[in-house]
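Sample entry (279 residues):
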Amino acid sequence: MAGSDKKEKTIFIRSDEEIDLIKISAQVLGKAHAEVAKLIRPGVKTKELDRVAETFIKDNGGIPSFLGYNKFPASLCISVNEVVVHGFPSGYELKDGDIISIDCGVKLNGYHSDSAYTYPVGEVNQSVRKLLARTKESLYVGLEKAVDGNRVGDIGYAIQTYTEKFGYSVVRELVGHGVGQDLHEAPEVPNYGKRGQGPKLREGMILAIEPMINFGKKGVVQERDGWTIRTVDRKPSAHFEHTVAVRKGKPEILTTFEYIEAVTANTSLMVDTQELTAA
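Predicted structure, serialized as tokens:
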């Protein structure tokens, strides 16, 4: 779940034992995502996806991180097409050509994990599939900078420069964040910025890195429900997220897309990054 501008608080350094607990939470999260991925197809109501995720998380000893968070009414943020983040599950039926971002969090053993994945539904315009592929790639470009001694601005700069070279734009109002015993912790992790600026990264910091990349303009608006964020020009937006531990030399990705991609590998949901980024 994306954060927004707020007062900076203490940045926590987590022990290896705490990081192991987050990884356990992240395994349940990854499998919950896969249960949802099995159902994504034209004709499915988005509230059914939320029901499946909530049931799976609770059946596996977890607590849905989002449910009730600041009165958020669901276990999943479900954002379709021009909705960037924080969309509500509803009676909307997915349609051929839609894209859908599924953002989910799990609290287990006192620690949260947070991740998001955007899926094409059925036959999706090739240019939009490229947006998904390149946004996903930008996540890995950014998290490569989550190493001891770098700064938060190095992550944002990497994501911004990668995505803007394709003509996309980076959302400013919503950002990544620290995560641990609370769902949103310091520091904020923008998807834009300047190298060498922002809080210094230290081993043991836990970050939710989550590029939110628009096909058109960077501007967004908030709907009357107080949560849903959509693009100002109503063009599509993609969102991918991992929870990552800052390490020396190379970051440690705590969440996983492995279970999602075992489901999507032989379906039209698969985002083939090698094919789509050749151009």
